[in-house]
Amino acid sequence: MKKIKIVFILPSLNGGGAEKVSINYLRQLDSLKYDLYIITFDESKEILSLIPKEVKIINLNTISTKKSVFKLIKVIREISPDIVYTSHSRVASFLLIVKIFVKKFYHIARMQSSPVLEKKYNEYGLITRLFYSFGFKNANKVISQTEAMKEDAIKIFHLKDKNIEVMNNPLDIENIKRSVNESISPFKKGKITAVLSGRIKKVKAYDLVISGMKDILSIYPDFELHILGYDEGEKDNLNQLANKYKISDKIIYHDYISNPYAFYSKCDLFILSSHREGFPNAMLENYYLNTPIVATTCVPIVSKLIKNGVNGYLCNVGDQDCMSKSIIKCIKDIKRKDIKNPKYSGSNFEDLLKKNNLI
Questions:
Q1: What are 33-76's pLDDT values in tens digits?
Q2: Nearest to residue 336, comparing CAs of 225, 210, 195?
Q3: Do residues 264 and 291 make contact, with C-beta atoms less than 8 angstroms apart?
Q4: Contact (CB, 8 A) for 98 and 74
Q5: Would you tell me how many other CB atoms lie within 10 Å of the CB of residue 191?
Q6: Inter-CA distances, 276 with 77, 121, 196, Å
Q7: Which of 198, 205, 213, 303 is 20 to 30 A from 279, comparing alpha carbons?
Q8: Where does 56-146 have alpha helices with state H?
């Protein structure tokens, strides 16, 4: 039987949310049934270890999406795929040009964020919004992470309801279990540990947590905050804030961590402080691990999963007072051993292929 050729186009193999979700989808596919390819634009290798050895990786060494178009045309023409998956709006849009020069394929385009929130926070201008809209309109199927995101796409990008598939982000349960089993605690004994995870940028609102740490430390002097993620321009501001409150020794930065589950499975609580999220993967992984969670209601899925006083506490976006008080209550009242969260595994990529008669 002839194998179906599927190409995943990822701008990089870094540890970002869109990249990890894409690899989780790829890992759901059986290499005996599919010829699997990854086309990437740079040489970052943070999640390389998660990619099955049967997958063919093609690095265009172009860095930017715009500079990748001509090489992408050449490679897509050589592979002649049946299905192409994209994980970023910009790539989905530039694929319009690629399609002109290659054999027809089925394009599945995943939205990485809510277009309403992207518009609210001025992530890009009108011209780019129209460009993205045109790209998604010309995809055969668009993946939205939530029902709310689907409605946003219809409103902002003017997509048709029938062309959008709602697929909650998947978890790679097998990898999480293995990573936890292979890990040892990264924390010092006797410390009360909280974890923030994600690139260090303003939208993650890590300053909310740091600003309230003096209140937390007045009750729990052994409290430590561990931040996992690369700096994207906000670390200096956080350091200035920590120096102001004289708490720098209570904040530990770890940059990118290949096995964050050692932190997630051993910490006392996980914190999601964001102003906005597409679909909070790190929070989902901690939810699966029954970690106590303090989170802002930055996306509807948070309120569905986190129940006050049961498995964590919720705060409105930007509410610093609630954040510090909730962290104190979470430390006092909620322990991992007492949490039994309902099962969550997320969506399956092959189910999408079956539903659309692609296999």
A1: 999 999 999 878 888 888 999 999 999 999 888 899 999 999 99
A2: 195
A3: yes
A4: no
A5: 16
A6: 38, 10, 15
A7: 213
A8: 69-79, 89-101, 115-120, 126-137
Q: What global pTM score does this model have? A: 0.90
Give the C-alpha separation, 202 to 234, whole Å: 6
Q: What is the pLDDT at residue 121?
A: 79
User: Which of 142, 89, 147 has its CA nearest to residue 113?
Assistant: 89
Q: Whose CA is closest to 4, among 106, 94, 122? A: 106
The CA-based dihedral angle spanning residues 261, 263, 266, 268, taken in that order and rounded to the nearest 10 degrees = -130
E strands along the chain, which residues? Answer: 4-10, 34-40, 56-59, 83-86, 106-110, 141-144, 164-166, 192-197, 223-228, 251-253, 269-272, 293-296, 312-315
Smallest CA-to-CA distance from 17 within 237, 359, 278 is with: 278
What is the phi/psi pair of residue 2, to 5°?
A: -70, 130
Contact 223, 194 (CB under 8 A): yes
**Are residues 272 and 163 in contact, defined by beta-carbon separation less than 8 angstroms?**
no
**166-205 pLDDT, tens digit each:** 999 999 999 999 999 999 999 999 999 999 999 999 999 9
CA-based nearest residue to 160, from 181, 182, 138: 138
Contacts of 74 (CB under 8 A, 6+ apart): none
Question: 36 to each of 85, 146, 199, how far by Cα in Å?
Answer: 11, 27, 29
Residue 29: CB atoms within 10 Å: 20
Q: Which residue has the tokens 């999220």?
A: 277
Where do the H-state alpha helices sit in 138-280?
A: 147-156, 173-181, 206-211, 213-219, 235-244, 261-266
